[in-house]
Specification:
Blueprint: H1 3-55, H2 65-74, H3 76-90
Helix pairs in contact: 1-2, 2-3
């Protein structure tokens, strides 16, 4: 291999590494965001269930992997959807 070819291979490898680091950073940021929404959604479900139970309404929204993932991926609209389904079943 000539020096010119080795330089091009090294340049392509460096570019690939930089792109890989950028993609991994975005994925880690996304995973951290989903984790934080999941934790906050679980806390919100706990307190909303307590508030509704205090008023005498039991919608049956539990804390399980499905509700945690729904609130983690969708955020606040996911919580509204979970309670919307619970309210529909309550009727």
């Amino acid at each position: 291999m000539t020096d010119h070819t080795m330089g091009m291979v090294a340049l392509v490898a460096i570019c690939a590494i930089v792109l890989f680091i950028g993609v991994m950073k975005r994925k880690m940021e996304w995973l951290l965001n989903v984790l934080m929404r999941s934790i906050l959604g679980t806390i919100a479900i706990y307190f909303v269930n307590g508030a509704l139970a205090g008023v005498g309404i039991s919608l049956g929204v539990g804390i399980n992997p499905l509700t945690v993932l729904t609130s983690g991926i969708l955020g606040f609209p996911g919580l509204v959807a979970i309670y919307g389904v619970g309210f529909y079943n309550y009727l």
